[in-house]
Design brief:
101 residues, 0% strand, mainly alpha, single chain, 1 helix
Length: 101
């Protein structure tokens, strides 16, 4: 009654087809494109131009992000500290109960 029934692997019935034959194909390398002779002049200005308005916008947008991330990290640290303190109190309580016996 409690013996597990192990399924048996059924044998294939009927005709099986042989695998398809794959023939190799020749690979021809692609001719490289000719190099351009005209060189582009180098730019003298930086890629990002910061105006006083964009600097003010970046600082104004970055400050709330820093404050939110800082608040989350501080709250996580506080949660870890409270958990450690409660585990320490529980350990001392169990230790004193065992010592009294």
């Amino acid at each position: 009654m409690f013996r597990p029934k192990v399924p048996t692997m059924p044998q294939p019935t009927g005709l099986t087809t042989p695998p398809a034959v794959i023939e190799p194909t020749a690979v021809t390398p692609h001719a490289p494109a000719p190099a351009s002779t005209a060189a582009t002049p180098a730019r003298n200005r930086p890629a990002v131009q910061l105006t006083p308005g964009t600097v003010l916008a970046l600082v104004g947008g970055g400050t709330p992000v820093v404050l939110v991330v800082g608040a989350v990290l501080v709250s996580m640290l506080l949660a870890v500290a409270l958990t450690a303190a409660s585990v320490a109190v529980c350990a001392l309580t169990v230790r004193s109960c065992i010592a009294r016996r």
